[in-house]
């Protein structure tokens, strides 16, 4: 079973801070200093990065993006796709009942578990999809079906710091 690393690494001190100094986020740490840090982390399996546009006034995102261009996400995630197909099939069936996509069912499931999913939105349709997901009231049986299918995948994407979900 593959798991996320036990530690997430933050990039808030990467790049320049507000007004070009070390105020707010960013400590004037640039690519030359950070490349060895990134390489050492990746070599040791620390590949979960916390970044945000506000960090370094956007520098952290730019720097991290330049470093990860050579990383092959497909090598990590594509082998898992066949493992999760049964779960996607279950979510697709539940979605048909509610007239929504498997992704919206996944959001409703996370909400039903008492979590607050954070999703990226760049289109009005994505906001509308999120609203539909919020309005889904999954039954105990539907949640059980998804929990069983998820368990059978053998894939665990939780970090070691995460508490078990209800």
Structural overview:
Pfam families: Aldo_ket_red. GO terms for molecular function: oxidoreductase activity. Residues 7-73, 81-149 form the NADP-dependent oxidoreductase domain. This protein has helices at 31-43, 59-68, 73-77, 81-98, 102-112, 124-134, 140-153; strands spanning 9-10, 49-50. It is an all-alpha fold and 166 residues long. The chain has two domains: 9-71, no CATH class; 80-153, no CATH class. It has a two-stranded parallel sheet. Helix 4 (81-98) crosses helix 5.
List keywords for this structure.
mainly alpha, elongated, NADP_OxRdtase_dom, 166 residues, two-stranded parallel ribbon, 7 helices
What is the structure about, briefly put?
Helix content is 49%, strand content 2%. By secondary structure, it is mainly alpha-helical.
Q: Could you outline the blueprint of secondary structure elements for this entry?
A:
Elements: E1 9-10, H1 31-43, E2 49-50, H2 59-68, H3 73-77, H4 81-98, H5 102-112, H6 124-134, H7 140-153
Parallel strand pairs: 1-2
List the total number of helices. 7
Our measurement of the CA-to-CA distance between the termini, rounded to an integer number of angstroms, reads 20 Å
Q: What is the radius of gyration computed over CA atoms, rounded to a whole number of angstroms?
A: 19 Å
| Global geometry | elongated
In N-to-C order, the SSE pattern is EHEHHHHHH
Class by SSE composition: mainly alpha
Give the strand content: under 5%
Work out the number of β strands.
Answer: 2
Mean pLDDT, to the nearest integer, reads 82
Which spans have pLDDT < 50 for at least 5 consecutive residues?
none
Counting structural domains, the number is 2
């Amino acid at each position: 079973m593959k798991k996320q690393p036990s530690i997430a690494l933050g990039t808030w001190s990467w790049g320049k801070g507000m007004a070009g100094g070390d105020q707010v986020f960013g400590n004037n740490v640039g690519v030359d200093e950070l490349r060895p840090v990134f390489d050492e982390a990746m070599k040791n399996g620390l590949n979960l990065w916390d970044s945000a546009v506000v960090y370094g006034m956007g520098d952290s995102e730019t720097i991290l993006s330049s470093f990860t261009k050579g990383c092959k996400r497909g090598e990590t995630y594509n082998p898992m796709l066949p493992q999760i197909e049964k779960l996607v099939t279950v979510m697709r069936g539940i979605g048909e009942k509610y007239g929504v996509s498997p992704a919206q069912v996944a959001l409703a499931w996370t909400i039903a578990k008492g979590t607050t999913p954070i999703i990226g939105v760049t289109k009005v349709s994505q906001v509308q999809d999120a609203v539909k997901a919020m309005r889904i009231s999954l039954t105990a049986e539907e949640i059980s079906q998804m929990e069983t299918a998820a368990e059978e995948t053998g894939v665990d994407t939780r970090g070691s710091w995460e508490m078990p979900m209800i």
